[in-house]
């Protein structure tokens, strides 16, 4: 296809910085036609999540079917999936449509600390979605929840990545934004055999709302265009670094990243 298409299956962030809003902005900036199936609507701004309103399973299924029937995506990204029923539905749809380029961003908690995934759903994510994932992109707390161990040092991250690969993830990206490694942010890619570290200067800012969504969406867009996972992560790293560096300084809390910065440089 001349232009690639990508589908995000995630929540809506009324504040525009995370969720499907971040995904669609990122897809667009990387030249990929973005489509979305909403799992939930959140009333959100830079100060936190002020309400979570899950969609019905019927609404989620119909959105996915409508896209699959007429606009089959080259790559799919999942974000906030809210509960195990939704996770089971998404897993069923991935199998039904034989989608094999699925990027799972295992969203669990918003930056302000509000839960975006019910506790009981973590097991479903591991059992149902991990085996179908082309790439999984946990941050450090999410990696800890998924493998049940402390994940801080690079060695921890390598062990966690191996465990997630054993659970079925074909590629694992352990995001390092929550890391304590001083003035560097190190993201770690594991492809089942080799590790690749993507380093960048840590930017001292509170405006990191939606960084994980944006990063995973950039990986998804690049994969939709046919890039290798390693090349996709490399581009996503540059994309998110520019998006944080050229912050918009919006809002009183954790402000959003700048989704057009990458193309402005
Ligand atoms: N302060 C920062 N400076 C530079 N890069 C950052 C910073 N915070 C996050 N990032 C980048 O954004 C990515 C996602 O951020 P992270 O906090 O790890 O995930 P999440 O937003 O899902 O919690 C990281 O892998 C890293 O590449
Ligand atoms: C609807 C929605 N989805 C995901 C996130 C996580 O955002 P972050 O990338 O900052 O962890 C969010 N805050 N809201």
Structural summary, described in words:
The protein is α/β, with parallel strands linked by helices. It has a single domain, classed as 3-Layer(aba) Sandwich (UDP-N-acetylmuramoyl-L-alanine:D-glutamate ligase), CATH 3.40.1190.20. The protein is 39% helix and 21% strand. The chain contains 9 helices and 9 strands. The chain has helices spanning 19-29, 57-70, 84-96, 121-129, 140-147, 154-166, 211-224, 229-245, 261-264; strands at 5-13, 33-45, 48-54, 75-78, 102-104, 135-136, 171-174, 184-190, 195-201. Strands 3-2-1-4-5-6-7-8-9 form a 9-stranded mixed sheet, sandwiched between helices. Helix 1 crosses helix 7 (211-224), helix 3 runs parallel beside helix 4 and helix 7 (211-224) packs antiparallel against helix 8. 51% of the residues are buried. The model has no long low-confidence stretch (mean pLDDT 96). Adenosine-5'-diphosphate (ADP) is lined by residues 139, 175-178, 185, 187, 200, 202-203, 205, 208, 211-212, 215, 237, 240-241, 244. Residues 139, 175-178, 185, 187, 200, 202-203, 205, 208, 211-212, 215, 237, 240-241, 244 line the site of adenosine-5'-diphosphate.
């Amino acid at each position: 296809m001349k232009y690639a298409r990508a589908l995000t299956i995630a929540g809506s962030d009324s504040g525009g910085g995370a969720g499907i809003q971040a995904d669609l902005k990122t897809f667009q900036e990387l030249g990929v036609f973005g489509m979305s199936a909403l799992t939930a609507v959140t009333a959100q701004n830079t100060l936190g999540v002020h309400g979570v309103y899950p969609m019905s399973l019927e609404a989620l299924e119909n959105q996915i079917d409508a896209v699959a029937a007429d606009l089959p995506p080259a790559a799919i990204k999942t974000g906030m999936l809210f509960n195990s029923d939704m996770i089971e539905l998404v897993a069923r749809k991935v199998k039904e449509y034989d989608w094999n380029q699925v990027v799972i961003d295992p969203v669990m908690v918003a930056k302000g600390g509000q839960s975006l995934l019910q506790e009981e759903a973590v097991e479903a994510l591991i059992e149902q979605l991990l085996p179908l994932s082309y790439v999984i992109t946990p941050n450090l707390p999410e990696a800890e929840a998924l493998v049940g161990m402390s994940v801080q040092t690079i060695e921890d991250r390598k062990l966690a990545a191996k465990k997630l690969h054993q659970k079925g993830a074909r590629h694992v990206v352990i995001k390092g934004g929550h890391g304590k490694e001083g003035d560097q942010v190190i993201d770690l890619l594991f492809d089942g055999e080799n590790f690749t570290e993507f380093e960048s200067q840590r930017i001292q800012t509170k405006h990191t709302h939606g960084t994980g969504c944006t990063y995973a969406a950039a990986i998804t867009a690049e994969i939709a265009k046919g890039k290798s996972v390693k090349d996709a992560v490399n581009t996503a790293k540059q994309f998110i670094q520019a998006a944080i560096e050229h912050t918009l300084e919006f809002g009183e809390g954790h402000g959003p990243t700048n989704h057009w910065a990458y193309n402005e440089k």
